[in-house]
Amino acid sequence: MEQRPSAAALWPDPPDLPLPAIMDQRWLDAVFLHWRIPESSAARFMPPGVAPDVFDGSSWVGLIGFRMKGAGIGRGPGIPYLGSFNEVNVRLYSREPDGTRGVVFLSLDANRLPVVLAARQAGIPYVWSRIRSWGTPPEDVGGGPSGYSVSRFRKGASSRFSVTPDPHSVTDDPLSLHVTARFGLHSRFQGRTIHIPNTHEPWALHKADLHELHDGLISSAGIDVDGPPESVLYSPGVRTQFGWPRVVTGARG
């Protein structure tokens, strides 16, 4: 019987990170939910100079939750308290004319106000929210549902979702790689489009069953989705580093 290559074998080589690294983070207990949407729906959120990165004829919107652990400046130790928090984001996928791929965040909810205020100064659309996470430790995949609940202050949008990972499955399908093998984000800053690069090892991706979903974050961001997500994934997590931003050539707006 022909053996399929592993997800790590299919994982694209991340580009070299410009040095020095500006931040080191660990992302744990990651839940990925993705819906297919029209390319035109994603295009209106793209910063100047980038376009939707299409897969299987469609754009994709993701609802992703994870636990930030030990975020620190450069490659130094994690910052006490502020370096560890829960985050839930809504994101799209972008591509520059030269093929550089990225993520465009529509919103990022976090439960550390100083982090939110600092990120917003850099043009990243963070929102201060109450966020709770639950589940088994990352090393015990399949021990039960893992999920997140978000409640924005002042009666804003809310979300609650959880999945049950399959500990015996490791995903290697092209869609899973398309939405997780991302090495940077595109954003607007001071009238320009910037790309902030990052690098990390391949995610250990497990297929998962949707356990619960009551979401208002995607619609609050301006995207309409119908029915359950087409892709449901779980990962124990990765460690990542971020490099210095660069301006996307010729992109102003």
Automatic annotation (TrEMBL):
It comes from the Bacteria. InterPro entries: ADC_dom_sf, DUF2071. Pfam families: DUF2071. PANTHER family: DUF2071 DOMAIN-CONTAINING PROTEIN, DUF2071 FAMILY PROTEIN. This is DUF2071 domain-containing protein. It comes from Pseudarthrobacter polychromogenes.
